[in-house]
């Protein structure tokens, strides 16, 4: 018989406790969580921390390269890592539709556990709500977290002509994967989401003494959203060599077929970097240890402030704009 | 024309930025948030913090005494206050159904702003997702937060016969209010939710030097869930004088009519306290400055370990059990 989550598992009473013990404590077990207090009490070593939150609503819940659980841990840990901090303590809020398959929930919790370990992070507080059938589509996970700063001064507001722009790997894999999975398009390819924890890569850059100005993972809105935000926030022009932007043949194929721009596709384990010019090639070497497709894609100029310019190999130029319209909903 | 939230407002692009700027930044504006980084970078004065999370799915969204926004700020700030900490930094995740009324969203954001000010807390990071119409019922808000510890050692695992059990006001108002609002029952009464920020009350207890063993707000599952958790966690018996439990005539009326137990109804601004015996009457005086209905309701014994006993005025005894079954879904 298929075991499912009953509505009563969100009641704050006996059934609620049972779900928490059997599924979530099993995966996330640690001394702080087991105290079952209203809030976790934590000791911090650093006085500077990074704090972030994200809610995840991806459909399908399981996709090549990951699932909503992996995504939920990577998403918040990556946001923390992008500020030069080590992800340390996470909270998790599950919002579950009545009747959700308990085995799938356990599988998702196990994915989260695995990804938490990669980050050296722990879930210290959680919340479970169960909503009546039909009032929510399957499952939403919110993760929030804090990390201790290991590198100070990273900011999207300080990028200048002293910086070089890099990307950590080929782009658009998450968006292309979700789209093809959702539409039931069978591809004879190895296309899978880039969903991945970025803290190890960031730590390698910090340990090597690389001068980092800004980091940002290119999630919803893709690389084009990140570069446009940077151009606006730092009041600069970013010029990108279109040919240098790494796109895998699989993602390129999906884009050709469906009329997408790779730069507007979501990523979940790919980040943009603004690195001091003198350290750019050393940073690239380090990035390549994690992914061979890491590339220097552009530079900062004052040609058109607050805009991003794509230079083609034919010598033409066009603006790369912030994505508008509906793009792909429920992607992360 | 009714302005609504379009699906494109969750795209990570232009429309997403517009919603964030116009609605959320307007309400939550502060220097940290305006930096628009992947994560907020925060300076902490204390090395010990409390951290908690909660997701809110109440229906109806607006009810006598509050709305989902007030609830979302109170809920997480109260969990933090219950550990003897001052709520300081919050993250907010909005999950919005496509087509949601923008004016209602603005009203909710304003409620949050007001309640944040009462706590002296700030929203430092946020996330907005918009889900296609029909895949979520209106709106879910997740809040997570951290606070700096002002009183150390509060724990539900250390309650003993040296402690007296108190409740901060009359119980069950939130549950009774939501139920009558939902069922369209028109009551000729002043019944309204107890939804409220508890940090000011906790601070008054701390400032007066009261010896606090445990605090817990009696949300889902009500006072009966809290007392049963305490009895189990501290391996004690809690004996409560049934007559001493404060219940307003309005809540009593709803319970009589619908067959509810007041002790199982949810609260959103009512907490249980375990206070060292010698400080109990002094604590009561302080609680009464905030609500005249604060009461000493019971004591700790070793009659039946891990159980809660209700003593009636007729000399009979019965167990007060942890609530089971569906209770009232989507209450907070």
Describe the 3D structure.
The structure is a homodimer of 332-residue chains. With 332 residues, the first copy, chain A, is of the alpha+beta class. Helix content of chain A is 31%, strand content 27%. Chain A contains nine helices and 14 strands. A seven-stranded mixed β-sheet of chain A has the order 9-11-8-12-10-13-14. A four-stranded mixed β-sheet of chain A has the order 2-7-5-6. Chain A has a two-stranded antiparallel sheet with strand order 3-4. In chain A, strand 5 (85-97), helix 4 and strand 6 (122-131) form a beta-alpha-beta unit. Chain A starts with 13 loop residues before the first helix and ends in a 12-residue tail after the last strand. The mean pLDDT of chain A is 94. Chains A and B meet through helix 1, strand 1, strand 2, helix 3 and strand 5 of A and helix 1, strand 1, strand 2, helix 3 and strand 5 of B.
């Amino acid at each position: 018989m298929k075991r499912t989550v009953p509505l009563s598992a969100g009641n704050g009473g006996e059934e609620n406790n049972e779900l928490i013990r059997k599924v979530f404590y099993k995966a996330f077990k640690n001394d702080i969580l087991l105290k079952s207090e209203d809030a976790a009490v934590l000791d911090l070593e650093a006085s500077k921390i990074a704090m972030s939150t994200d809610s995840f609503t991806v459909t399908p819940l399981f996709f090549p390269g990951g699932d909503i659980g992996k995504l939920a841990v990577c998403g918040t840990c990556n946001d923390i890592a992008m500020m030069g901090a080590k992800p340390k303590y996470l909270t998790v809020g599950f919002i579950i539709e009545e009747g959700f398959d308990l085995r799938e929930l356990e599988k998702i919790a196990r994915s989260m556990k695995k990804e938490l370990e990669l980050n050296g992070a722990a879930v210290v507080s959680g919340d479970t709500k169960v909503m009546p059938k039909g009032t929510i589509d399957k499952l939403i996970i919110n993760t929030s977290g804090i990390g201790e700063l290991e590198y100070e001064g990273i900011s999207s507001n300080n990028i200048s002509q002293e910086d070089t722009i890099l990307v950590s790997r080929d782009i658009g894999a998450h968006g292309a994967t979700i789209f093809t999975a959702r539409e039931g398009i069978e591809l004879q390819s190895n296309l899978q989401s880039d969903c991945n924890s970025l803290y190890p890569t960031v730590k390698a850059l910090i340990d090597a003494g690389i001068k980092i100005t800004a980091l940002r993972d290119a999630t919803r809105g893709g690389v084009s959203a990140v570069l446009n935000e940077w151009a606006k926030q730092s009041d600069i022009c970013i010029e990108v060599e279109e040919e240098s932007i790494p796109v895998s043949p699989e993602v390129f194929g999906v884009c050709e077929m469906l009329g997408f721009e790779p730069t507007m596709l979501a990523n979940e384990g790919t980040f943009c970097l603004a690195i001091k010019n003198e350290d750019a090639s050393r940073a690239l070497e380090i990035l390549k240890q994690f992914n061979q497709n890491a590339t220097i894609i552009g530079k900062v100029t004052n040609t058109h402030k607050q805009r991003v310019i794509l230079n083609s190999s034919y010598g033409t130029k066009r603006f790369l704009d912030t994505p508008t319209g509906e793009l792909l909903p429920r992607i992360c």
